What we know:
Blueprint: H1 2-6, H2 12-37, E1 44-48, H3 55-68, E2 73-77, H4 82-91, E3 96-100, H5 106-111, E4 114-122, E5 125-130, E6 148-150, H6 158-168, E7 177-179, H7 183-192, E8 197-201, H8 207-213, E9 218-220, H9 226-232, E10 237-241, E11 257-261, E12 263-269, H10 274-288, H11 312-320, H12 331-355, H13 358-385, H14 392-410, H15 420-444
Helix pairs in contact: 2-12, 2-13, 3-10, 13-14, 13-15, 14-15
Transmembrane segments: 12-37, 340-364
Keywords: Membrane, Transmembrane, Transmembrane helix
Pfam families: NMT1_3 (PF16868)
Amino acid sequence: MTKILKFTQFSVRDLIVAVAPTVLMIVGVCLLAYWLVDPAPPRTVRLGTGQENSAYEDFGKKYAAALARHGVKVTLVPSAGSSENLRNLKEGKVDIAFVQSGSTNEEAAEREGLSSLGSLFVEPLWLFLREEKGKPAVTQLTQLRGKKINYGPKGAGSPRLFRQILELNGVEKGEVERFSLANTPATVELLEGRIDGLVFTSAPEAPLIQMLLQTPGIKLFNFSQAEAYARKLPFLTHVTLPQGIVDLGRNIPAADFSLIAPTATLVAREDLHPALTDLFVQAASAIHSGSGWFAQQGQFPSAKYTEIPVDPEAAKFYKSGPPFLQRYMAFWLANLFDRMWVVVVALGALILPLSKVVPPLYVWRIRSRVYRWYGQLRAVEQKVEDAPEATRMQVYEDQLKRLNEIEELVNQVSIPLSFADGLYGLRSHIEFVRKRILFLMGEASPGAEAV
């Protein structure tokens, strides 16, 4: 059986040896392209949220649940609010965070390597005041002089915004007694009567907003000049809290309220992997696209309402929807195919030229088993031709023995049948050299017998 297999039309072993360098080169180039062009997305990401019982905290939990379905763990990093989130982004403490519009500008964002993934929702400036018996209701912000107002903790977005609003009304620093408590303890202080009012920016879904809107003795300030504020501070919009939106049965609120509102934006560092950008934008679309108190169906998320440059991947989503492959397959599989296009191009560039190298290399390897013996054969001829006259017969005899050894070794060479002509040609040439040596031996010693 071994002898039968020895004579085949094709040599698998030689083909493997011939193809191996090409395959190794292709694999090496593919691996290099795979790692250098776009590394795999990380499995964890840090999201900057906000204070306890805030809308940022609530939405952060929703994002964590959405990305967990794709195998990405979202670590929620609480903060005082927008300003602290922005600082954490710049310092690399978080990868992505909720930031209030007006917190920075385009030049500063580009300088810090930040980009927007879109605006998510409006978060009005809520000013809740404690009603005082026998005193007129506060209808102008100038009436806050001398009152105790909680602006919010350092790092939140509301203190900076409320100072701007007071400055527009001519209320100087120090004319209002400022407190800097977090929203929850500030609410307790307001209900206990130790402060006169509190300010914070938040989506209406926040539990504290829902509670304060329905608490007797606590009144929401009506920004009757909301349109003027929006003109003076372009990052603000004028929104209306409709009558009865909180509770239709109890008619809460009893009238329409005008409010001023920045927008909440999802801001990411420039080194956030594009695949994670896609996931966050898709999650934003699922979480924020519904209608609400201040938004129509499909109004958010949006590439509008943000002064921070929008990330190209996010802009592509808002224009064309999710990536084609992610519409039909799991995120990680789609991401793998999306990243592998470079590898496919590299393969196409390599396989065609290298495939032309393999057949000649295979042929050369087979024929080299025969050709290398011609060197030995030529060496025998050379020694015979250069033999000194004194030792000529001895040289002839030695080279004839050497020729017999070569023939024995050649008979053990195994090559495919399609290349057998070369092997038989070598044997005939060995025989030709043998006859020539015998002829020379006969001339050198007439009558001598052939060995």
